[in-house]
Amino acid sequence: MRLSPSHALLATLLFAGMYVPSAEGQAMDQTMVPRGQLRLQAHPIFTSWDRRFGLAPDGTPRIEELGDDLTSSSGADLFPGLPDLRSAVRDLAALPSYAPTLGPTTGRVQQEVTSIEFGGEVGVFDWLTVGVTVPWNQTRTVIDVLHSPDAVNGNLGVNPTISEAAAVESFLTSASAARSAAQASADAICAGGPGLACTNALDLAARTASFASGIASAYAATPFFPLVGTAAGDGLNQTLSALNTELTSASLTTFLPLVLSNETLSAEGFALLPVIGAAGIGAATPLETRQGLWAVGDVAASARVRLLDNLTPAGDQPAASYGFRVTTRFTVRLPTGAQEDPDVLLDIGTGDAQLDLEGALAADLRLGGWFGMSTAAFYARQAPTTLLRRVAAPGQVMAPATTRRDVRWSPGVMMGFDIAPHIRLSSTVSLHGEYRFLHKFRDEVELIVSDPTIDPVVLELESGLKLHQVGGGLRYDTVEPWLRGEETRPMEVHLRFLHAIDGSGGHAPKWTRVEAGIRLFRRVWGPTR
Questions:
Q1: In Å, how far are 8, 127, 307 from 5, measured between CA atoms?
Q2: pTM
Q3: Helix ranges restricted to H, 222-281
Q4: CB–CB of 303/122 below 8 Å?
Q5: For residue 334, how far is the Cα from the chain centroid?
Q6: Fewest CB atoms less than 10 Å from the CB: which of 201, 272, 416, 417?
Q7: What is the pLDDT of residues 449-507, one digit of tens each?
Q8: 326 φ, ψ to 5°?
Q9: pLDDT tens digits along 30-85
């Protein structure tokens, strides 16, 4: 059992902060690099998910499709501002039961991350390994949106501020002029003192102002507006016609004809709406499949220390049939990746873009010549950073552009553990099982500039998660036989599968991950073994 006072002291200091692989971390691995050897690695990792461990409206856990955020029986409620449109039309058209309907919309979303983790580690001493890992990531979001216009019950079309902007502007200008004229007339009549004429003039001015402001709000609320020939469109025209009749009788300025929608939204047009300025979303890309460019993720620098070991052979001695190896690791993950773009809908970042201090304690047990088990407990403290985010509720894909704010994001602490039993099929080949538990605590978010109209707490909702994952893999490792002189060169190759079987938190991904890896060694200094 090898444990010197110098590296025991260093290990104790490193153990003050424990290591956690990120939620996309590679296989649990506490193997050391022999002194004087350089270990180079390339680990391709593919992660994909189209479901999450979400929450029902009453708060009970359930598995949700990612596409549920783009699925609606009416279609229009996927966009912000629909309550404002509904309220305005109900009041102006005297239709208290008005329900805006565009047509059913069904969404399918799948998110993918492909990563190649390049790295190099050096065995400084037999008990100390240091290294750097550089992830090279590409993200892909598959978005399929099927919108079917409702030819029977649909009562919304494309907002004329998009299709007939000049006509709407002229109408709103006339509305402002009519409101000003009605108010000026009321002021002049009431200047002679109270009376029936004054009361009637004030009432007309109030109704004119109410219609002008209400219809302006309706135009600005959503990318949709009542269609020509619908009950809502007819009701708005009737209200305006009656109001114009009174204004004409009073010899006042009237409204121009109301501009209703005369264009039903097509399936193709639905996906393009987020990028149209008048829609109020301000997205940089439409609702369509998008693949990002390859980019650097969060680079990690690590130091691994061997605390106790009676498994690693020294010289030509045989490997122990029963024993253990205990290691600890400290990692600093740098903010070299990129967070998701708030103007790219359903974007995935290449990293967290903030500093992490991580650490772990791991043990490798051998219980006979053919069976063993690896375990690890991990912890990470994630440093806060400043980001531009859309401050909107979880699941609201198309939050309005007006919700974009600079926020101070403090990610929650992460912790968990791994258990990986393995069966040695030979001196170089082993078959592994794995269970991994991950717990991320809830984030804290604050606005950089206080705004009473925006509540950053919505970004904290569903930011924590618990995730249970199971999997297995195959490993080929000649390092130990090489140390005993039985192999000519060291090499490590592995294949691993991991699947999330249970979780909670609202947005915990139900992902599947496939990982492969190869590690090659090269002598840097010291004698040839």
A1: 5, 12, 10
A2: 0.86
A3: 231-249, 267-272
A4: no
A5: 20
A6: 272
A7: 999 999 999 999 999 999 999 999 999 999 888 887 888 889 999 999 999 999 999 99
A8: -120, 130
A9: 688 999 999 999 999 999 999 999 988 888 899 999 999 999 998 898 998 899 99
